Amino acid sequence: MDKEILDLRAQNVPWAMISERVGKKKTTCHMRYVKLQEKAAEHEWTTENDTLLREAYKKSKSDIWNIVTTKMGVNCNWKVVENRVFELGKKGLKSG
User: Fold this and answer.
1) Scanning 27, 79, 88, 96, which has the fewest C-beta atoms within 10 Å of its C-beta?
2) Where do the structural domains in the chain lie, given as residue ranges?
3) 52 SS3 class
4) In which element (H, E) is residue 67 found?
5) How far apart are CA 84 and CA 49, in angstroms?
6) Residue 71 neighbours by CB distance under 10 Å
7) pLDDT for 8-26, tens place per residue?
8) pTM to 2 decimal places
């Protein structure tokens, strides 16, 4: 089932069709796909990727957080939003 889900998504097949093909609910197929992607990323990620991520983030963080702040419709320093997201991230960005 895993290989079929990966192959079908690589072909941009909609979740409804994948669901029918593998005989599982759409959400089950999607969640399995996400898990497979996470597992693959763990094996492919390197310390060089960490370095590149850090450098890219340092160069882009004000732009990233200004976009988020604007979309929120709040008038505050982007660093406040960045810090708040990191705090929420520790909790898994769950609501409430």
Assistant:
1) 96
2) 2-44, 54-90
3) helix
4) helix 47-72
5) 25
6) 8
7) 999 999 999 999 999 999 9
8) 0.54
